[in-house]
Each structure stands twice: as C-alpha cells, then as structure tokens.
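Need the bound structure for S-adenosylmethionine, inputs here:
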Amino acid sequence: MDVFDELIFWAQDRGVELHGVAPHSLPGRGVGIVATKPLKAGDQILKIPTSTLRTLDTARPEIKDVLPKDTKVHAILAAELALDKPTSEYSPWNAVMPSRDSIISSLPLAWDPRLHAYLPKPALALLRKQQAKFTHDWAAIQQTPFASTDIPNPPITRQDYLYAWLLVNTRTFYHETPLTRRAPREDRMVLQPVADLFNHSGKGCAVTSTPTHFTITADRAYAMGDEVAICYGKHHNDFLLVEYGFVLPWDGGSANRNGGGDGEGEEGQPQQGGGNCWDEVCLDEAVLPALGAGHRALLEERGFLGNYVLDAGTVCYRTQVALRVLCVTPGQWERLVSEGEDGGEGLQEEVDRLLLALLRKWRGVVAGKIEEVEGLDVGQACQREILCARWRQIASLVDQTIERLEA
Ligand SMILES: C[S@@+](CC[C@H](N)C(=O)[O-])C[C@H]1O[C@@H](n2cnc3c(N)ncnc32)[C@H](O)[C@@H]1O
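Answer from helper R.:
Posting the output first, comments after.
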C-alpha cells in the first residue's frame, strides 16, 4: 500500500466517504484530488464526519493547559502538529502532508527576509500581519515546557513550529455552523483529512458544513483523471502567494469573474488550472506619488486615500475618484464626491490621459523590479522565480490597460 492508500483506508475506517475521487501527486502542485471516474455537476464526492476533524476540542489538554487562555486555535493546532510523534494516531494523515523543505521554500514567511522587500505592496502588507501573528504565537510556545531544553524529549525549535504553523495556515477550513458561529471566526479553524488535499482554482467544487459533516460537491462535469479543485476564496495572486505559496497563471485577462458561475471559459473549456479570474494589482505606487500633501489630505478626509486597484477589466472606483482630485478644483471635487457624479465625458478623458501617463511611468518601475529580482542571489532560485513571475503578471496587466487606454 502506498501512502495515499493508507490514508484512504485510515479515513474510511473513521467514516470518511470518497465517491469517484482520490489523492494523486500532481507536478508543481504537490498532492491534489483527481476524478477516478466521470463526475457530474452535483455529485457528492467527499463526505467528512466532523468526528475526524482536528479542532480546539481535540487538542491535547497538556498543550492547551500550558498556553495562555486567549491563545488562538491556529497556534494550538500548530503545537499539536509539531508535537505529533511518528506513532501518533494521525500518522497516515501526517504522512501525506508536504515536506518541511517544500513549505519552507514556497511560503514567503519562511524566506530569507532580504527577499521580502521585493514583494508587491499588498503581499508585503499581508506578510507583515502574518509575521506579527507568528511572532506572538511562537513567543507563547517558548514559555511552555515544550520549548524547554530541560525536558526528556527534544524541544520544539522555531523551525519546527514555523513548519507546523504554516501547515495549519495553508490547510485549515472554517467550520461554520450555528454553534461554531458563536466563537470568533479565527477560532472556527479546523483541520480535516483528505479534504485538505484539494488544490485551489478560481472556480471550484462547493464546500458545505453542518454540525455533523463537511461535504464537497462537484461544481461541473469532470472526466476521469481531471484534477478536481475547490475555491479557497476570491483571492488575488498577492494573497495566494503569501497565504498559500503559489500564484495562479496569468491568462491575458480572459478569465471571467462574471461568467455565470458555471465554471466554463469563453471557448466552453473549463477554467480549471487556468488563470486567476480574481486577480488584481495594487496601483498605490503608481498613483500616490502624483498626489501632493493637499490632495492627500482631501482624499484622506473623504476616505479615498490609497487602496487603488486594477483588474483585467477595470480601474477601480477609488482610483477614478482619486485621479479626479488632480483634474478639478477642491470645491468641484468635493461636489462630485458628495453627489456621486463622474463629471462627464470631458473629465473622464482627462482622467484617462492622466492614468495613462502614470501607468507608463510605473511600468518602468515594474520593469526595474523584475530586473532587480533577476539579479539577486539571496534566497532560493524558486523563490526569486515566483517573485519575478508575479511582477511579470503585474507588468502584463498594466500593459493590457495601457493598450486599452491608448485605443
Ligand atoms: C490545502 S493544501 C492542498 C494540497 C497540497 N497540494 C498538498 O500537497 O498537500 C494547499 C497547498 O496546496 C498548494 N496549492 C493549492 N492550489 C494550488 C494551485 N492551484 N497551484 C499550485 N499549488 C497549489 C499550495 O502549496 C497550497 O499551500
């Protein structure tokens, strides 16, 4: 029996039901779930009893008892994983988890910090929050006997805990039931066997939970051998990079957010494995340098300073509002904002010209970033490559918008 057979045997013994799907190694995506027979939309493909979950309630008391009362589930589950022995009752499940090397090389939190400066702004902001959470959780673990050298077992090291913490970060689900909703959202995190092997796609199978089960249902037809994915959320690639250690490919902007939810692309081809229909790029570094102190103050006062984004189809409303401040008097701008007006075609043309100039300038900055990252020799080659890949996607989206504005 290989590790996947052992996992399935172990899971089925605990009531997990797999219908027409099985885990499989997939190049570039670790393990994923594939169809073992043709599937139809609406087929229930996985049913997981909540009795198999690892949660706050299943965490060992000797771990919970030595941590502060307000310790988050994330920190507790990570301690659980870090302390699991090879003889643990969870060993068939643990055996299919990604290796320490793959977690450490893919997740920016574990990268050489000198690479962090090259993350796009939204990714860096997320990373800083993650760092603060990890530092807080690790500080709590350090106060426990598990990190002490005075115990008979080897103590948990920072690297052990970081690996376990990132496993939890990339593999938990929110258990949403009327009962769990009484707890803060971050305390509804659970680990579930087999379901944690589904990879992410912009559109994927539905995941539902009740007090007794999690259920995953096919969103469309799948041929035998197709990868079957779920959607972790409507996440842009900067989020996926920091939280999950990958980016979905750039597809030239053809992925369709509003495609009727049927998971079909323009050619009738499934979007599975395709581009990220939720991707967007932060334009703050293009727009903010053009604003003087007075403009910034006005925008700040009305809640429009920063968080400017561009997706494959549109420049966001906040950007449109912010650029108008550079084209009209403060009084006129206040009136436009108060009345929710765009100021007409003439003003829109002026805003488009301004945006075009800012994007052309920023495109040069993006090209510089790519060159800088290509020339670095810190971190691992795969880490530099994913950074370059992300900046190239940003360059493509900016190029596409420049072309649209020039047309
Ligand atoms: C919940 S796990 C999914 C199973 C995982 N592939 C494994 O080998 O155990 C989430 C992780 O899978 C990988 N992943 C998920 N979706 C992916 C995708 N579309 N492309 C590449 N990697 C993906 C990332 O490493 C992510 O952190």
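Comments: The longest strand covers residues 200-209. The CA atoms of residues 50 and 242 lie 29 Å apart.
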